[in-house]
Specification:
It holds the Pfam family LacI. This is LacI family transcriptional regulator. GO terms for molecular function: DNA-binding transcription factor activity; transcription cis-regulatory region binding. With about 325 residues, the protein is of the alpha/beta class. The protein has three domains: about 45 residues, no CATH class; about 130 residues, Response regulator (Rossmann fold, 3-Layer(aba) Sandwich); about 130 residues, Rossmann fold (3-Layer(aba) Sandwich), CATH 3.40.50. About 45% of the residues lie in helices and about 15% in strands. Helix 8 packs parallel to helix 9. It is elongated, with a radius of gyration of 24 Å.
């Protein structure tokens, strides 16, 4: 059976309004409230859908947003993207999602791919390395919003968690329980998030006048295997830490694997704080203390900022949005012995 779609003329006939008024509404323009209600009711009754390809040719807009991530297996990023899609969908936008697999060269190719697809805006979790392609995209007028990571010397909207203070609070909580030797597993040194989380670790040591042992600082790659290996390195030290703080979800999972394998009793043998409150963490006994990033809020803030920029509103540019993280303290933290 051939289904014949309603046209804009059908909507005009149904409402008694002009095609110009209906077109203005469909393309996001301002129309009278009473006309908006009449048009929307007719669109729903007639099951009218916009031919995005035809409209794109006329308006040079595709109503699509490109999203480039370093790892589609990372639940932190996919949770944020899910919320972005929820908000954008309500305004009639679709998404093209790319995974550049933590590969700098592939990141550049994916950005080029999205530009060639004529997306109206781009959301990027940057690798942290210099991307000249990003500068060119910004200069071309395509809105770009960075999430999770800020790039130095690039004027760009950013939405991210408050990495420094979240780490400060986590380590301070361990200090208040009497722990003075706190091991930390951070990400790559060139990564903004790793730098900020480590800065919080340094700052709380300074404020409490505790000496920093560089051997307690381990640099991972934000992947599970590195969390596993580096946790074992910390616990094999001649003078091991009495508490460990792991600064991302995947490395936290690796540390938990090592804990189970080594038969460590939490918190009697060791106190631990991980990162991101995913359901898998809840199955541990005792439940893990975690820094909880506001994933839904990051996604919602990003989507609303996208809609603002795509509408041509460039007020408060560049906008840097640091959203507060929470610390959930459980019985995985005990007093130092």
């Amino acid at each position: 059976m051939v289904i014949i779609s309603a046209t804009i003329k059908d909507v005009a006939r149904k409402t008694g309004l002009s095609i110009a008024t209906i077109s203005k509404y469909i393309n996001g323009g301002n129309v009278l409230d009473k006309n908006r209600e009449i048009i929307q009711a007719a669109i729903e009754e007639l099951n009218f859908t916009v031919n995005e390809m035809a409209r794109g040719l006329k308006t040079n807009k595709t109503r699509t947003v490109g999203i480039a991530l370093p790892d589609l297996n990372n639940l932190f990023f996919t949770s944020i993207v899910s919320k972005i899609e929820d908000v954008l969908l309500k305004d009639g936008y679709g998404t093209i999602i790319c995974d550049y697999k933590q590969d700098y060269d592939l990141e550049k190719k994916k950005l080029e791919f999205l530009v060639n697809k004529s997306v109206d805006a781009i959301v990027l979790v940057p690798s942290g390395k210099e991307v000249n392609e990003l500068r060119e995209i910004l200069e071309s007028g395509i809105p770009v919003i960075l999430i999770d990571r800020l790039l130095k010397d690039i004027e760009c909207d950013v939405v991210l968690g408050d990495n420094l203070n979240s780490s400060y609070n986590a380590v301070e909580t361990l200090f208040t329980k009497g722990h003075k030797r706190v091991g930390v597993i951070v990400g790559p040194q060139e990564m903004y998030t790793a730098e900020q989380r480590l800065k919080g670790y340094y700052r709380v040591h300074e404020d409490y006048s505790f000496k920093i042992d560089s051997n307690l600082i381990k640099y991972g790659d934000y992947r599970m295997d590195s969390g596993y290996a580096l946790f074992k390195e910390l616990l094999s030290m001649d003078d091991p830490p009495t508490a460990v703080y792991v600064t991302n979800y995947e490395m936290t999972l690796g540390a938990v694997m090592a804990i189970n394998e080594m038969g460590i009793n939490i918190p009697d043998d060791l106190s631990i704080i991980g990162f991101d409150n995913m359901e898998l963490i809840r199955v541990l006994n005792p439940p893990l203390s975690v820094v909880v990033q506001p994933m839904e809020k990051i996604g919602e803030t990003t989507a609303k900022l996208l809609l603002k920029r795509m509408s041509g509103d460039n007020s408060n540019f560049p906008s840097i949005n640091r959203l507060k993280s929470d610390l959930i303290v459980t019985k995985s933290i005990g007093k130092a012995k």
